[in-house]
Specification:
Blueprint (H helix, E strand, L loop, with lengths): L4 H8 L6 H13 L4 H14 L3 H12 L14 E5 L7 H11 L4 E5 L9 H5 L11 H11 L1 E5 L6 H13 L5 H13 L5 E8 L8 H17 L3 E8 L10 H12 L5 H16 L7 H7 L1 H12 L10 H4 L5 E4 L5 E6 L1 H11 L10 E3 L7 E2 L7 E4 L2 H14 E3 L8 E5 L2
Parallel strand pairs: 1-4, 2-3, 4-5
Antiparallel strand pairs: 5-12, 6-10, 7-9, 7-11, 8-10
Helix pairs in contact: 1-3, 2-4, 2-8, 3-8, 4-9, 4-10, 5-11, 5-12, 5-14, 9-10, 16-17
The structure holds uracil (URA).
Length: about 425
């Protein structure tokens, strides 16, 4: 079978997608034998009629196998975490070295920011010299030696997804749960994982704002990853407030370093919970995880990873010497009251407008962001703005003020739900 049209027609007519059909589409996306028109029609058929659960697994496997799939022979489990993205979410920078210090191997292939959220690679590139683009040989060497590496995908990782992703963007088919699932998992599973934990955000700063749609995505991801042979669970976690008080590339690296050095807070709590889940999935004991963080072993693994990927050897000792600082740091004034609601997406847009995130100026952003229930006013600002100049600072101050509502509000649990296969 080489003609994609019967495969597209079957989905259009509600008959789902089978393994050979998924392979034909994924290979054709990767080698160009499926045209843009066919790929757009395929995506629309999937969005409107769905692939069915077996079809989603088949599509994920076929997209994973459209490129190179890593295989490992290491003296410990190979694990990873994926987050659907939020504000102040610097978990990856803490979790990867923490799991490495605990005897796991974490070959983390990460992404750039999507929408209003920051990307792990953008944050790491705020470290002078840090190279996200590592040849596979070096990636493998660093993972073997240190236990973790955080890199960008090479052209060989799930090429079918790269093409379909662009076509979804152009054809109004981004929000299909089947396509989102296959897209996320094809890239993650190409890293050759034994276990994967997913952090699906819900709330005002999440891509899926409602808990029920986040739940549907989490369920689809967990069923599909397990169906494709990778032990996986998901947490639905709160994004009605930022995960940590900093947003912006260099500021978040600072935040991650403080967390690695023992600072308490939601970033630490969530990292420990996700890391424990990873260990359990991989059949390892999660006992002693907090002690590993407190011992400094995770911080040391982070420092070694940064140095191995081209960054400074003394980043943890002298972060201020290496991470750029904005020329202007000003408070966001607030009337007196308590924080009742935060439009976290608006905070993300404020950071992007300052030049943080992908529109790069690594040193800008927000820190000391107020959280739900915090008292503000009378000398306690909503946040500190780190800006390139006064004009940018004034725009950010107005945006941050608009993002906060003072008054009564509820603070929900950090982990809203746990989804298992
Ligand atoms: N992240 C991905 O990699 N793909 C999607 O479709 C959405 C988020």
């Amino acid at each position: 079978m080489t003609d994609p049209r019967p495969v597209i027609a079957a989905i259009r007519d509600g008959r789902g997608l089978d393994g050979p059909g998924a392979a034909l589409i994924a290979q054709g996306l990767a080698d160009g034998s499926v045209s843009d028109a066919q790929a757009g029609a395929f995506a629309m058929a999937v969005l409107t009629r769905g692939t069915g659960q077996a079809g989603r697994v088949a599509l994920t496997r076929a997209m994973r196998d459209s490129g190179h799939v890593l295989q490992w022979d290491l003296p410990g489990p190979v694990v990873d975490k994926h987050s659907t993205g939020g504000i102040g979410d610097t978990v990856s920078l803490v979790l990867a070295p923490l799991l490495a210090a605990q005897g796991c191997f974490v070959p983390m292939i990460s992404g750039r920011g999507l929408g209003h959220t920051g990307g792990t690679l953008d944050k790491l590139e705020a470290i002078p010299g840090y190279l996200c683009d590592q040849p596979e040989e070096d990636f493998r060497r660093i993972v073997r030696k240190i236990g973790c590496a955080i890199v960008a995908a090479t052209g060989d990782v799930a090429p079918a997804d790269r093409r379909l992703y662009a076509i979804r963007d152009e054809s109004g088919t981004v929000e299909s749960i089947d396509l989102i699932t296959a897209s996320i998992l094809s890239k993650k599973l190409a890293a050759g994982l034994d276990a994967l934990v997913l952090d699906v955000k819900a709330g005002s700063g999440a891509i899926l704002k409602k808990s029920d749609s986040a739940g549907r995505l989490a369920q689809a991801l967990v069923e599909t990853a397990n169906g494709a042979g990778c032990r996986t669970t998901a947490f639905i976690t709160d994004m009605d407030q930022p995960l940590a008080r900093s947003a912006g590339n260099a500021l978040e690296v600072h935040e991650a370093i403080r967390c690695l050095q023992g600072e308490p807070g939601a970033l630490r709590d969530l990292t420990l919970a996700l890391a424990a889940e990873c260990l359990t999935l991989a059949g390892q004991s999660a006992e002693g995880l907090a002690a590993t963080l407190e011992s400094g072993a995770a911080a040391e693994a982070f420092g070694r990873m940064v140095a191995a990927q081209g960054g400074p050897r003394d980043l943890l000792v002298r972060p201020d010497a290496h991470l750029a600082r904005a020329p202007l740091i000003v408070p966001v004034p607030a009337p007196q009251g308590r924080v009742g609601r935060i439009d976290v997406t608006a905070l993300g847009h404020a950071v992007l407008a300052l030049g943080g995130g992908r529109v790069r100026a690594d040193r800008v952003g927000l820190d000391r962001m107020a959280m739900l229930g915090d008292s503000v006013g009378a000398g306690a600002p909503l946040a500190m703005v780190h800006a390139a100049d006064d004009t940018a600072a004034q725009v950010a101050i107005a945006a941050v003020q608009a993002a906060y509502t003072l008054g009564e509000g509820e603070v929900g649990p950090l982990i809203r739900d746990r989804i298992t296969a």
